[in-house]
What we know:
By secondary structure, this protein is of the alpha+beta class. It has helices at 2-15, 149-156, 184-207; strands at 23-27, 32-36, 38-41, 44-47, 53-64, 71-77, 83-86, 91-92, 102-109, 112-122, 133-137, 142-143, 162-163, 176-180. Strands 4, 5, 6, 8, 9 and 10 form a six-stranded antiparallel sheet that branches. Strands 12-2-1-14-13 form a five-stranded mixed sheet, with no helix packed on it.
Amino acid sequence: MKITAITTGLGLLFASTSFAVIELRINPNEETFAFFGSDEGNMIPFSFSGGGNGAVVQFRIDGLPSPPTQDSTILIYNDDLTFTTSPVGTTPGSNFPDGRDAAINVTNSGGVARVIVSFYAEGVFTIPNRNPVTITTLGAERSYAGFSSVEKEIFESTIGIDIPLTPGFGTGYDPISVVAVPEPEAIYFSVIGVIAFGLAVMRRRRKS
Length: 208
């Protein structure tokens, strides 16, 4: 019974972290981030500069704290480890010359700071026949150490904010939720708390 109670408690802890939306987890200490979760919606047609047609969905947040220095950088991920798409016939974009399938763009221009997150799909993609498209992220850790100090400040300021769809760049997807990666100590004490809870439940059952 002791093992069952503890296992149940741990299950509740990790079950509470599941969700049906896309989450962007940022680790400011390590200057890394990763996408988790999945969501379904409608992408829009997109012509790849390297040739071929596909689709894109884009999320954008404006009005972030704007440092005085103007800057703009786009991080491009040129592999299929960031996310997958379905139905069959839609694949993460690979027709860009650089093969990007997902991108984060941080800009600060004219006193307006913004962060843009884009997911690209390609392949046999005929709108609207292939919609809705499910994006399933894979939790692959990425570095944003290449950002300037200004861009890092802007990017990290999104923690605790939901990034909504860019108008005209897709429908049906929920905003991306941005959270900070829990510190190892916080995870440790959470697990200890759940174990203590499980033991308390076991004691109550024995008394009853």
